[in-house]
Amino acid sequence: MQFSRRISWFSCGSASAIATKLSKPDVIAYCHTGAEHEDNARFMSDCENWFEQKITILKNPKYADTWEVWEKRKFLAGVAGAPCTGELKIKPRLEFQRENDIHVFGYTADSPDVKRAEGLTEHWPDLKCEFPLIERGITKAACLAMIETAGIEPPLTYALGFPNANCLPCVMAT
User: Fold this and answer.
1) Which residues of 62-82 are buried (b: 16+ CB within 10 A; e: fewer)?
2) What is the pLDDT of residue 174?
3) Alpha carbon distance 161, 89 (integer Å)
């Protein structure tokens, strides 16, 4: 089977930035949730300059942000995840992707991310995935150091003590 595009799924976090830089994708895609810290826009712009490539922004037009998903669905999160992830990240990805795409994800070599990558490939067996950070043994701490070495200030959420650059609040964050 011939693959049509290599898509790196950028999330405004250091790990997805390093995975994108390493993978040299045809397309960099970002699923806009409407609930991330305003500094993520600065980080995204800095990364576009570093990648020398524009980032394609995807959005589910049905929802303005995570709060609207929670209010309309009357549900925050459960054992199967959060409805905001499905509505604001998975649905836009499914609408954008093509059958033969290769999907690059910035899961790190840290144990929780390795488990997330395993879950992704288990639940989406038809999705051709690459995990360049896991393959190279690159941890989250190493990703932050690499971003700083590249002269890019990490997203402000890290300095504020959050473990990632996800939505504020993220009902699934640990």
Assistant:
1) ebeebebbbeeeeeeeeeeeb
2) 52
3) 24
Report d(CA 33, CA 93) in Å as an integer.
12
Q: Are 139 and 43 in contact (CB under 8 A)?
A: no
Q: Average of pLDDT values for 114-137?
A: 96
Q: Does 173 score more than 70 pLDDT?
A: no
Give the Å distances, CA to CA, from 97 to 13, 93, 110: 21, 6, 27
Tens of pLDDT, residue by residue over 44-92, are: 999 999 999 999 999 999 999 999 999 999 889 988 889 999 999 999 9
Q: How many CB atoms lie within 10 A of CB 168?
A: 15
Tell me the C-alpha distance between 28 and 160, whole Å: 27
